[in-house]
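Problem statement: downstream parser choked on a complex file, so we are re-checking the raw output for the fe (ii) ion run. The parser issue turned out to be on our end (a line-ending mismatch), but while we're here, posting the original submission so the record is complete.
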Amino acid sequence: MKQSTRPSLVLTPHKGIRFAFAQITMKAGSLDYANPAHVADLTAQLVEFGGLLEEHAHLENQFILTSLAARVPGSADHDEQDHIALELLQEEVMAKLESLQEPGLSPQEANARGYAFYQDLSKLHAAHLEHMLEEEQVTQALLWDNFEDEEIMALHFQIVSNIPPDKMLAWTQYILPSLNHAERIELLKGIQMGAPAAFFAQVMERTEAVLSKEAFEALEEAILQTA
Ligand SMILES: [Fe+2]
């Protein structure tokens, strides 16, 4: 499909979601499921990321799909159904992970359950990849056909202003490394303009923790230059 220079509502969060799934999948593949500290660490990360996925779907439903359905009746049904199915798959993944907290599991049983969890995680990952591509190639194209850029940007600001600060900070660890240099600058400049200075400083701190020294310094320099 032809690339558009028009604003996209899904490019940034979807890059972050792809990055997170890849990172978590790599971690889950090499994990020693008989080690409770390792299981607890992965569980904490997935509980947080699962919360981000749910919030992302709710914001898409509330702002993007509701607006689209009002102009093109029926056009949001497929994505709304996908969101329900993805949430159910996510619950199955979390149940498998929680089953590893059962006391008295032998190392063999823990690693067998860990592998079953890993396979379910892979299923959820695959379902998200397919869903995101469809939203990018079908849903976003429908938005371009039926909304002006100004209207799309108004939706963008509604979505961003409905993300609580703690969730915005949690997104930073996945979204910032997933973007290219120009996209990082655009995102950070937007936060700098719209949020209090203390919050922007927290975002920059989280960003520094997840980028290479070279990439972070280039970003800092670019932001200072355009300040
Ligand atoms: Fe979605």
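For whoever reads this later: The first helix runs from residue 11 to 30.
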